[in-house]
Known about the structure:
- The protein is an alpha+beta fold.
- It has helices spanning 5-11, 18-29, 36-44, 52-64, 108-118, 134-137; strands spanning 68-71, 79-82, 88-93, 99-103, 128-131.
- The longest helix is centred in the middle third of the chain and has 13 residues, at 52-64.
- The radius of gyration is 19 Å and the shape is flat.
Amino acid sequence: MPTTLLDALRARGLRVTPQRAIILEAIEQLPGHMTAEQIYTHVQQVNGYINLATIYRTLELLLELDLMTEADMRTGATAYALHTHATHHHAVCRSCGRSFEFSHELFEPLTSALRSHYAFVADVDHTVIFGWCQSCTGHSQTAES
Ligand SMILES: [Zn+2]
Ligand SMILES: [Zn+2]
């Protein structure tokens, strides 16, 4: 059985308040990516007294403890994901905001080259790459209209 966030915090000797326990549970129940607002909406169904600031503080702690990753996709809200969520990256279109996920393998030639040429260990966990999608570059294969 995988350890819960609650166990992970307790294992580090941190005191977990009942409010924080509710937030941790919500994070574990939300699939894949989540914004602070989504966690807030979820938490409100359980305890209406938990505010957004408490959620941000909890997220900051989880990032600090390296239990979560964040990806700023410039959609106005940071996407948080648990580390147990598969390693992947995002490509986001600067023009229309469309995005897709791509696998970590694509980064491996780059990270291994950085390591062997520069002894540099790249932190490419949950990276966001900006660019332009096919329809925004005008290179659509269905060009006729
Ligand atoms: Zn686009
Ligand atoms: Zn992601």
